[in-house]
Each structure stands twice: as C-alpha cells, then as structure tokens.
Specification:
single chain; 200 residues; alpha/beta; 5-stranded mixed sheet; 6 helices; globular
Amino acid sequence: MQYHREEELKNRLNNFFITQFSLPEDDYYSRLDSEKIISLKKALSDINNLITMKITISFVNWITKKFNLSQESEEKIINEILSTKPSTNGYDIVSDEIVKLIAEVKCNIPINAGKKYGSAQRNGITKDLNNLLYGKTKSKFDTNEYLKFMVFLENESVRSANQHYIHLSKEFREKLIVVDEKTIFDRKDCVYLIHINFIN
C-alpha cells in the first residue's frame, strides 16, 4: 500500500487521543480546523517547560531525602522554582540549604525515539556542563564550592543517549559521574548525572 502522509498523521493523532486520554474511537483529526490546530500547537509548545518543571520538583524531593533537608528548606527551593519564568537565565536550581548545590535540568529525549542525541541536543548539554563546571559567561557566580548536578528524565533511551554522549566526550568523560545507589557526593570538580522519575 502506497504511503500517504495525511493518513499517517491522522492515524497517529487519533491514536494518541484515544490511547492517552481513554477517549472513544473516533476521527478527532477531521474536527481540527486551522484555529484548533494553532491552539493545539500553542498548548504543546509548553511541553518542554512542563517536563522540565516536573523533573526539577522530583529532583528537589530527591535531594531533600538524600541530604536530609528540612520540609521548610524543600518548600523554599520549590517556591523559588515555581516563581521563576522558564526562560530566565541562571541555573535551574541553586541551593545553600545545608548542602551547597547547583543543577541544570534537561528534558532531552533522543531524536526519532533513538538512543543517541542529535547535534543540537549534544551542543546544549555541552554548554550546560561548561556552565556548571566553570561558571556562566558574564556571571560572577562561583561554582567551585557547589556540588553540581545535571538532571535527566528516567528513561531507557535517555540513559542510552547519555552513555553514548559520555563515551564520545573526551572533554568531560573524567568529570561526569552517573549517579547510582552507591554514589558518594564528595567531589566539587565534577558533574553528577542523575536520572529522575516524574512525580505528580
């Protein structure tokens, strides 16, 4: 059967609505006029920010348990996150609560459901690693006294892409530690890569 682009897109969109939202089987695609498609595009454009926010809050829950932060400290960090606009410059998390740490949160998903990042994704990760290790350009913030984290979504493809990135990276290979249950957080000259599940 010959490939038909519109049929493929229609089937994928309908299947998404039916399976992800438990909607009855129907042709939802046929109901989308140009205004509805634009509205859908606007809503979906915030997905990256939503994923980043969810991962960030999950990471705060994790550091609260790992470093025995008080509930008050946890709430303070979360309030700072929720009151910061997504496009704001700076690190995603800066905390001086008991333990000094900074974190960049990445919502990267390997392109085409693969196990490797695209070049733009790799460049973004490299830039953020440099910022964590050496500070941001035009910023007086000194990262040397902070534990440094790069936070990713817990996902098999993401883990594979991160391993591939580490394998290819001569610059950072010795400065990246993938966090597991046995990891000891006693180095400030490296970046701890951690994979975190969402919380609702």
